[in-house]
Amino acid sequence: MLAFCGQDKSSVDSNGRVKFSPRTCSDFKNRCNGEVVLHCLSEGALAVYPEEIYMQMRRAETRPAEKAGSSLVFRRNLRRFGSLSSSEKVSAQGRITIPSGIRKMLDLTPGEEIVVVGAEIGVEIWNAARWDDEIEKINSHAEEKGEREMKADLDYSEGSAGGRE
Amino acid sequence: MLAFCGQDKSSVDSNGRVKFSPRTCSDFKNRCNGEVVLHCLSEGALAVYPEEIYMQMRRAETRPAEKAGSSLVFRRNLRRFGSLSSSEKVSAQGRITIPSGIRKMLDLTPGEEIVVVGAEIGVEIWNAARWDDEIEKINSHAEEKGEREMKADLDYSEGSAGGRE
DNA sequence: GTATAATTTGGATTATTCTGGAACATATTG
DNA sequence: CAATATGTTCCAGAATAATCCAAATTATAC
């Protein structure tokens, strides 16, 4: 059975909390016993990853201390992941509290309509309006890519009489 | 005997559910005991694949966590497959529920006329009007390709008297 | 240092939606 | 024409979502 998939509409409660669907809850329960990392993405959503997944993501950075001494780009990268990530635990009621510092940044303030989106390795929490923009971008990109593939298929047959294979 | 072939007209019930034909039901029963993955395609239909088929499709992605940390394209890909896919089980009555989040996106809202189309590795659920457009596109593409092939065949014989082979 | 207030957290209750199944109607085949 | 298989509709039970409230912890002021 697929983990971390689908979309769930929800909202931020008056205390800045979000409740996950039962599906998502059990996915987190199974994978990491509810131990997650919240990470603020530059595209404007809050990623929620099992702790282990986040560790893998950061393990990609090797020898950070050495690089940090000489590279501003690298220091800013450490800073970005450090300041915009934090550990949380999904509560017994299946809720997490969004850190107040990043609520305004992501339009996830109390009362806002949100969408919890599966991303295979974890989920993402989007402001509903922002998600509409994002899915539109994703779809139009995929469409354009498809159109180009169809065009290439026609051009291909022109170049090789008898067709492919 | 061919699996996942042909077309069946049907409709979406008041609760957003679709009933498969007995043929399609037994195809899913045989292949995957009814465990399927629904995936929203960019061309505007809902693909229904046996879970194993979908897993093969996605196994192409290796080391997803590491790539996700540094690539927007990669994150959007995870997001696309994650948010637009979900596990379902064909019920004892041969029905599946279309996730509400993707109903509007695909014009598969309650009451809509639909067509369940065989696609060899699984089936696709199309809004009836959209399916008419799609089959038109498929046919005209094939026609155009045929025309170009015939033309290329002429050009070929021009260059080498005696024809090919 | 203590008491009060405010904020946060966890839980329980109520209302709504969803799911599965049964019953009935329709179509098809022998 | 009858019998079987299929499609459709409707309803009851269950699961889920939303709201509200109480307890606890923290912060602040005196």
Question: How far is the N terminus from the C terminus of chain A?
Answer: 36 Å
What are the low-pLDDT stretches of chain A, counting only 5+ consecutive residues below 50? 161-165
Radius of gyration of chain A over all CA atoms, rounded:
20 Å
CATH fold assignment of chain A: Chemotaxis protein chec
Would you count the extended β strands of chain A for me?
A: 8
Order of helices and strands of chain A: EEHEEHHHEEHEEH
Strand content of chain A: 15-25%
Assigned CATH class of chain A: Alpha Beta
What is the spatial order of strands in the main beta sheet of chain A? 1-7-8-4-3-5
The main sheet of chain A comes to: 6 strands, antiparallel
Number of domains of chain A: 1
CATH superfamily of chain A: Transcriptional regulator MraZ domain
Number of helices of chain A: 6
Describe this structure in a few short sentences:
The structure is a homodimer of 165-residue chains. By secondary structure, chain A is an alpha+beta fold.
Describe the fold and architecture.
The structure is a homodimer of 165-residue chains. The first copy, chain A, has 165 residues and is an alpha+beta fold. Chain A has a single domain (7-127), classed as Transcriptional regulator MraZ domain (Chemotaxis protein chec), CATH 3.40.1550. Helix content of chain A is 44%, strand content 23%. In chain A, the strands form 2 sheets. A 6-stranded antiparallel beta sheet of chain A has the order 1-7-8-4-3-5. Chain A has a two-stranded antiparallel sheet with strand order 2-6. Chain A is globular, with a radius of gyration of 20 Å. The model of chain A is unreliable at 161-165 (pLDDT under 50). The interface between A and B is large, with 46 and 41 residues. Chain A binds a DNA duplex (30 and 30 nucleotides) through residues 10-11, 13, 15-17, 19, 21-22, 91-93, 95, 97.
